[in-house]
Amino acid sequence: MRRCNDAPKRHNLIDPSLFTLLFRRWDRHSALSKEEREAFSALPFVRKTLPKDAYLVEEGRPTSECTLLLQGFAYRHKLVHDGARQIISIHIPGEFIDLQHLMLATADHNVQTLSKTEIASVPAAALRDIGARYPALQRAIWLDLLIDASIFREWVVNVGRRDARTRIAHLLCELALRLDASGTDTSPTYEFPLTQDQLADATGLTPVHTNRTLQSLRKDGLIALSSSRLTVLDWDALRDAGDFSERYLHHAVRHPGRS
Amino acid sequence: MRRCNDAPKRHNLIDPSLFTLLFRRWDRHSALSKEEREAFSALPFVRKTLPKDAYLVEEGRPTSECTLLLQGFAYRHKLVHDGARQIISIHIPGEFIDLQHLMLATADHNVQTLSKTEIASVPAAALRDIGARYPALQRAIWLDLLIDASIFREWVVNVGRRDARTRIAHLLCELALRLDASGTDTSPTYEFPLTQDQLADATGLTPVHTNRTLQSLRKDGLIALSSSRLTVLDWDALRDAGDFSERYLHHAVRHPGRS
DNA sequence: CGGAAAATTGAGTACTCTCAACCAGCGTGG
DNA sequence: CCACGCTGGTTGAGAGTACTCAATTTTCCG
Predict the structure, then answer these.
(1) What is the pLDDT of residues B79-94, one digit of tens each?
(2) Which of A20, B144, B180, B244 is buried deepest, with most CB atoms within 10 A?
């Protein structure tokens, strides 16, 4: 809408279908009109291709943009004093990786690509503006943030109070379910972008112990995992092993009265 | 603004000075006008006194209200399959404990009081409405949520990649700094509402090990801790011991352009 | 085909846990 | 006023999950 015909300089870099994954995900919790989608698509996104291991966000840096993952995976992490790394979340295609930059002026963690990725960045101010104009978009953005926060809470529980096997199974369940929901992959086989070292850093374990624990999950017939592909062989068993309950993902939120 | 003069039925239960702590905290990141404070104070808050251990939020329950802690402490937690508990955050006077209810329809965790508390609850819809009308209030609310999320991230790191001594020291640093900032307590002695069992559940340790670790911190002259009072005897040493860096608390956020 | 990254295996270690008993503070009641 | 009982804190000893170090094999990719 509104004059998008005459000024295609920046956003003609963007194929509208690129937002398919995002919109599909948002549809689960926020009904968006055609007008809202178009307004969103008309934002001054800048598209980029990044190699594996590239930094998307760096701790301590001032923030000004929000970045949407179009293709590929990314992970959020922090380093502790002795150089160890804790991965805080994994991000899949169709997710914003740093919506907190809407209001927080300084990055408090790092985000790196797990694989070659395509991203689309937009100034945080532009996102704030469009949110102010379209309440449904505002709602979708904030819901994403709240669900992220809910996942962080579950991760605190996961690394805080579960043993190695349960932790890893839980993480696999979460990733499988999120990939399913986003429609990027179909059950029961998923792209799995983490090395065992990274899986260890996500679960607070050592790589060696992670390796042995994965073998145990394989031996018990719960999963197959090799060459970046995860197959869930027995969902119920994996779910049990991971003490997994999907409530925290809020995949089906009830709409509170818009207001 | 609009007729708040004629309907004081509910909010005359609230003494405006009760929001002092909240407003003082919000002042750090969101400048609020007199009008905005008054509009906020005029919301239909309901005030209540709760005993120790009372549930403020219960996992699985539908949500409809947001609750502000006026006095006393509360903790957020989840239970895992084998009955173990992980505490996810501690909340101090002047903080909202469940702003995520603005949009999430079902509680994904529990919140319980740590001590006798006074709270003020307000319908989530009323908070959403006032946020839509007053951007500065909206901003303050969302910043609180984003800072909460940042704290969750740091907790993932804390329980995931730090040893017992560092974990506990880190948590003590965080609490001391937050209490300082909120003005509820003055350095170097703070009210400390957690039992060792709860401290263990917050750090992912066992009570026994927590006890021994605390003794080590005491022996080394970093802290004094007894009968619900924490004294930081050597801030620099405690900070070092806890691998603590306060950036994630975002106590001084730069204002992004209001929009 | 070669080199680097990732995965796997082995053996010894240690941080943290478990179990269990004991102590201390404190509010209640006889 | 002191006994009682409960909650919270402390101590001891033994066990185990997960860690460390180091070597080896496999996979990936140019």
Answers:
(1) 999 999 999 999 999 9
(2) B244
